Request: fold
Amino acid sequence: MRASVTGEKMNRKRNLIIGSSLVVAIALLGVGQATLEGVALSQTVQAPIFEIDPYWPKPLPNGWVYGTVIGVTVDAQDHVYIVHRGVTGAEAGADQNPPLAECCSSAPPILEFDAEGNLIRAWGGPSETDEYVWPSSNHGLGVDQMGNIWIGGNGNGDSHVLKFTQEGEYLETYGEPLQGPNSLAMNHYGRVADIEFDFDANEAFFSDGYVNKRVAVVDMTSGDIKRTWGAYGNVPDDMYEYMGDRRAGTGWSADDYEEQQFRTPVHCAEPSNDGLLYVCDRPNNRVQVFNLDGTYVREAFYEPETLGDGSTWDIAFSPDAEQSFIYIADGKNARIRIVNRQTMEEVSTIGTGGRYAGMFQAVHSVDTDSQGNLYATETYEGRRLHKFIYKGIGDAARHQGATWPTGN
Amino acid sequence: MRQIVQGAAATLLVGLSAACADDGGQVPTFEVDAFWPMPLEYPNILGPVSGVTVAPDGNVLIVTRQDGFNGGNETNSVTGSGTCCTPTLAVLEYAPDGSLAREWGGADQGYPWPDRPHAIAVDPEGNIWIGGGIATVGGGRGGGGTPPPPPTVTVDSHILKFSRDGQHLMTIGEVGQSTESFGGAAGFSFDAAENEVFVADGYASRRVVVLDIGTGEVKRSWGAYGNTPDDADLGSYDPTAAPAQQFRTVTCAELSSDGLVYVCDRGNNRIQVFQTDGTFVAETVLAPATLGSGSVGDIAFSPDANQRFLYVADGMNERVSILDRETLEFKTSFGVGGRYPGHFRELGSVAVDAEGNVYTSENGQGRRIQKFVNLGMGLVTAEHQGALYPGASR
Reply:
């Protein structure tokens, strides 16, 4: 099954079609013009509704500021963890020698917040005793059922994943550090973008990654790779020649091709509670769905003409038993897409471009808590962790925009 | 907070302050409004905001830069690589409720738009003045053993005057000149009675220059302490050195209701106060250890008849300092570094409306105008209040 979904242009097309069939239907029913306008004006859909909380989390202590926030995960207690890359230079004026100013200081890379937005823990960074190789570029994190934190990386030499306790004590390194790309390697990775878990099966899913083109399933105890696969469940192939010419001016659209390999980065691999794995093939502007054994199930494209970083950055599930909705971060187009998980169709979006509350500059990672609240981080120049309060399912705007409280 | 008040004139001013009602040391209190101004339509975004002012009718105007969108990675709807975002035009005017009232201005519109627009002000006739700065254009990374190409540094040497709705009225000074004309005019204030505009000149020049509002002709100018301006290299700012006898970077020249001109000497971390003829009156140094671009970026007055308080935008320490205007004494500050509401990233300018609400603008990667709602006078114990979230303790 292959569904091609959304895009402003495509939505307009679809709306026109709906519009003309409505005209036919209404003409047949003899319904008046006023009703037709009423239908056209009420552009709402049944979807989760969100509202930004601009005052969450609480301001950081110590003059700390966030760098690019390139990972978020929520644990069973609804604590929220992020990984960011810190700041240097004039933005870290207080860290310079001599200090340039009283502001600002780079916060430690791993920050843990409670549900109220209080900072609980702050830790991380290179080992002072060479006990482990801290990533050259932090990227992605996961928290397992023991509360341990797994950290990926997308820089030079980041061919491993690190595991720490919740308090930041080093535990393990999975994969040999400082290795190059090799999507067939069984002893290391290729810049893992994100880490998720199937606790029942004791398996971790690595989005592998920024130089490799695969999903890697890892035994959570031994750290051994149990299986891997590429797009459509194919054997990963680093020499694959893409069919599409993904450049400006070529008219490229991802859904014109069935590219048989992921394009790097493979940016998320998220298991649902019904045994499916949702993989962000970011520059192919698609999500591919697999059984947990790697059997290909389906795919869906989002804003398929998107170039550059692509449109499918990260995925989170709504916390209802059916996980009815998936939320897809699209950092290139400054939105989080709300997608019906059954149909894979976009039903609404939240966010817009900008630097204010509920607006995005490069929204990168998403996760949900037990209450359905949605957390989103921004990389590049956004550099925030946002909390969108879940307001239930109701008449949602097709595009909810900045999700400011009504009345504002 | 270290603070230095120098000069006999400052001592005289302290004596005068005894005439003020004793309010037990209260200061204006604020909270940030995270929902002002209203969101722009998708996919529009603001560029770096390099100036903010409040018009007499209460509308709030900003000038934005339209460069530096992170290599085009933020303007995907312009480059065609995605659906967001598109920069607005350069000048935006907001109604007090935060709705967008006007949008105009920018390059390629039939007038010489500055390479680095900076400062916006409304004159007594309701016209808009726009200044400039120093722009670094081009350059690159080099590579393969090749040295990077040198960037071109341009100084905006002219000032633009527009009608309120964006019709170009006048260009003052020569375009594309050295500092013979203006050297990055970074701020304006007006004396309606004398028909004079005080220009903070500027990023490259080191003077306050007074022009005739109507003709734009130079009437007089002065440097630090009222000295004759001198463009000789001052070297790097050294907190332990004797006070520089010249301005380092002049980023504001604000005329008070009682006829004093408050000048931001940003790179020297100081405010100097003058009579309108250029006679030096007083100075104060804020956060004297501050390096980089300096601690005194812009000034606004509280709207009471006596303009009792000064608000000082400090883009290196990322806070607005509140000073007693007569004593130049530091009272408290608000704001902290960061990208959330009430936080600042490259805070550049500050303005105040008739209700005493404070507006700030962030340049560089901050790219916001923020509104701080005046909650009235109150006791504040914190030296630095941080992000003024609603209900935050002070």
